[in-house]
Design a protein that fits this description.
Helix content: under 10%
Strand content: 25-35%
CATH superfamily of one domain: Ribosomal protein L21
Distance between the termini: 57 Å
CATH topology of one domain: SH3 type barrels
Largest sheet: 5 strands, antiparallel
CATH architecture of one domain: Roll
Number of strands: 5
Radius of gyration: 14 Å
Shape: globular
Oligomer: single chain
Structural class: mainly beta
């Protein structure tokens, strides 16, 4: 029989920390153009991006329901990742001109 290679295959160390999800994380809002980092919250499986994009920097380009579309660069390709807000961490970029 062939081995199963599911969505969370080989993620034991990556997703082992069960964090408490606060109401602030669930109600967090992002605007188009905001810089974010994808950090998967293992206590919430709904709206979770693929584990290969853990720790990747991107920018919000669209809001889609409760989720956000994030533009990232994967080597030389530009990709769009759909992720729920609980799996996104806002970051501030120092010396950024607005």
């Amino acid at each position: 029989m062939r081995r199963s290679r599911g969505f969370k295959n080989k993620t034991r160390r990556l997703l082992r920390h069960k964090e408490r999800t606060t109401i602030t994380q669930r109600m967090r809002e992002f605007s188009v153009g905001d810089p974010v980092v994808i950090k998967i919250n293992s206590s919430i499986s709904k709206g979770c991006p693929h584990p290969r994009y853990y720790g990747v920097f991107g920018r919000v380009i669209e809001e889609r329901g409760r989720a956000y579309v994030i533009a990232i660069k994967d080597k030389n390709k530009k990709k769009e990742i759909i992720s729920a807000r609980e799996h996104l961490i806002p970051i501030t970029i120092p010396n950024q001109k607005e």
